[in-house]
């Protein structure tokens, strides 16, 4: 039997490790990530719509955003969403492949994609980012964690939790170039250490021009 397709591997992997992965999460965002999230939503009214792309269990980022905003969490893992619905009752959650989302154009105020786009095959990154650009209102912002270095592959026992996991991403310059080509204006970007491993990722805050 052949290897599963990447997205199925990610969905099944997060289903298997949902409870174990939750135990590794902080109850609240780190001060560093909270700074990015606050810049993402700076100036938004309390009824603003925020998309959390790859929300996982809802902790800690969906919960933090839901304290003020109307949040929709998207995830490909059924088990992760079951945890999210339990922990963040004020948000709405949808089981979906992020690359097949359909929102009205200019209907969202902000989008967070924290360690989620890097699980998508990189040939789909540009069309995905174009969709996110279209979903945002003018002046809307995107906080995304992308690749610092080009790599695609799997890890057989990620975090020693007993499941295989898949990643795919470009290097930082290519990721920033994609955002610029699509029309985003970069507000801030930095290479940040991985809080669950030895690697690093590109943290980028970008805006759809008015």
Summarize the structure.
By secondary structure, the protein is α/β, with parallel strands linked by helices. The protein has helices spanning 6-23, 31-40, 61-66, 78-87, 125-135, 172-182; strands spanning 49-53, 70-75, 92-95, 108-113, 136-147, 151-155, 165-169, 185-193, 200-207.
Structural description of this entry:
The protein has 210 residues and is α/β, with parallel strands linked by helices. The chain has a single domain, classed as Vaccinia Virus protein VP39 (Rossmann fold, 3-Layer(aba) Sandwich). 31% of the residues lie in helices and 29% in strands. It has six helices and nine strands; from the N terminus they run ααβαβαββαβββαββ. The strands form two sheets. It has a seven-stranded mixed β-sheet, with helices on both faces. A two-stranded antiparallel sheet has the order 6-7. Strand 8 and strand 9 form a beta hairpin. Helix 1 (6-23) packs parallel to helix 4. It is globular and about 45 Å long. The chain starts with 5 loop residues before the first helix and ends with a strand. The model has no long low-confidence stretch (mean pLDDT 95).
